[in-house]
Amino acid sequence: QSLKTWKQAIERSDTRLTVVFGTKGGRPRETVILDTIAVRKALDNALAIAESRHGRLIDKPDLKSAMDYWHNQAARIGLTGAYSPHSLRYAWAQDAISHYLAQGFNRKEALAIVAMDLGHGDGRGRYVAQVYGQI
């Protein structure tokens, strides 16, 4: 539902995207754009797919059935192990920590920001350090 909004954000050269739909607990969050070119390409591909599926990437009646479908399709095409969705989230979190450190944030600040990017809230920096922060 947010693909067009995200595309507009990229076109404005925004550095963050607002995630509203499909978030844990329904809590909106913002996440940093680490690679604008890759995000633009992914959005272009996603918009083309959504056009043929009633405006949705996954044309299912509710979030649970869409997530089930997504997980099954990811496994079917081999997104398992090091390439599983959670492993990709882990890799993104590590890249984001490095990005924030390079921007001049100290480690505690970088972990707090990544916690928010991941939808955990800023008080979960220690959790992010334990789970994602082994860089």
From TrEMBL:
GO molecular function: DNA binding
Domain Tyr recombinase, first and last residues per copy: 1-135
Gene Ontology biological process terms from the UniProt entry: DNA integration; DNA recombination
UniProt KW Lyase keyword: no
Pfam families: Integrase_1 (PF12835)
Keyword Membrane among record annotations: no
Domain of life, per lineage: Bacteria
Keywords: DNA-binding
Name of protein: DNA-binding protein
Organism: Salmonella enterica subsp. enterica serovar Kentucky
